[in-house]
């Protein structure tokens, strides 16, 4: 079964035994055996592996993984070094440059953010090649709702960054007044000009964390 390797194992142990998850698992076995599915099976839980429960300072919610060859590796918006940053990620970098004056990174791998406390969570964790949203409604949404509920229950303040309709649909799960919810348009080229550019989320997140005695996030990627 799943081995994440940190606090998430104990927190999600019951979830992995539930009927919906067992059905999802059978579906995924069949999918990986018969089709090209992203990310690679061993990368599905990379977001949780890289950022343990107590280490989360900010959550960025994505939709589902990139569905092109060599892109998805289990963290929303991130691509491995050597893969050109997709347009949404380019826009994220532009906004960070605008807000913080940081240079545009030489690659699109966001593992450094994950290690600094940014949980890069998609709402659906797998996808068929070339078919966005193809694993929607199979159970991942129930699983990621549970992850968000567990984070919501934490006392230490954190920031939830909800970009676009899919992410904003999760807002109702975040009820703890200790946390900050920031929402705006998706960074996709189709919507970035409708409120993502100029949102100020990276500055606002760090101001909130500092105000609450939490070390702010270093958003630089080298």
Average predicted confidence as pLDDT: 96
Number of contiguous helices: 8
Helix content: 25-40%
**Major sheet description:** 4 strands, parallel
Low-pLDDT parts are none
What Rg, in angstroms, do the CA atoms define?
A: 17 Å
Termini gap: 35 Å
- Which strand order does the major sheet show? 3-2-5-6
What is the β-strand count?
6
**How much of the polypeptide forms β-strand, as a percent range?**
5-15%
Tell me the series of helices and strands, N- to C-terminal: HHEHEHHEEHEHEH
Classification by helices and strands: alpha/beta
Morphology: globular
Question: What does this 3D model show about the protein?
Answer:
With 222 residues, the protein is of the alpha/beta class. Helix content is 32%, strand content 11%. The protein has 8 helices and 6 strands, in the order H-H-E-H-E-H-H-E-E-H-E-H-E-H. It has helices at 8-11, 19-34, 46-50, 87-100, 111-115, 140-152, 165-168, 201-211; strands spanning 37-38, 58-62, 118-122, 127-128, 159-163, 180-184. The strands form 2 sheets. A 4-stranded parallel sheet has the order 3-2-5-6. Strand 5, helix 7 and strand 6 (180-184) form a beta-alpha-beta unit. The longest helix is centred in the N-terminal third of the chain and has 16 residues, at 19-34. It is globular. The N and C termini lie far apart (35 Å). The mean pLDDT is 96.
Summary keywords:
alpha/beta; 8 helices; 4-stranded parallel beta sheet; 222 residues; globular; 6 strands; two-stranded antiparallel ribbon
Brief rundown of the structure:
The chain has 222 residues and is an alpha/beta fold. The protein contains eight helices and six strands. The chain is 32% helix and 11% strand.
């Amino acid at each position: 079964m799943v081995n994440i390797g940190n606090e998430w194992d104990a927190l999600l142990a019951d979830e992995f035994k539930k009927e919906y998850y067992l059905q999802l698992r059978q579906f995924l076995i069949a999918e990986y055996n018969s089709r090209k599915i992203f990310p690679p099976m061993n990368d599905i839980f990379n977001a949780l592996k890289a950022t343990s429960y107590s280490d989360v300072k900010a959550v960025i919610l994505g939709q589902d993984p990139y569905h092109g060859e060599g892109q998805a590796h289990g963290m929303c918006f991130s691509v491995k070094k050597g893969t050109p940053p997709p347009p949404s990620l380019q826009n994220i970098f532009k906004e960070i440059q605008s807000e913080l004056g940081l240079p545009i990174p030489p690659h699109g791998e966001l593992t450094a953010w994950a290690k600094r406390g940014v949980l890069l969570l998609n709402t659906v964790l797998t996808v068929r090649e070339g078919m966005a949203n193809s694993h929607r409604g199979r159970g991942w949404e129930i699983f990621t709702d549970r992850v968000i509920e567990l984070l919501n229950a934490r006392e230490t303040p954190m920031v939830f960054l909800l970009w676009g309709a899919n992410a904003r649909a999760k807002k109702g799960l975040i009820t703890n007044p200790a946390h900050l919810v920031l929402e705006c348009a998706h960074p996709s080229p189709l919507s970035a000009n409708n409120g993502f550019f100029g949102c100020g989320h990276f500055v606002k997140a760090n101001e909130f964390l500092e105000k609450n005695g939490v070390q702010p996030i270093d958003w630089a990627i080298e």
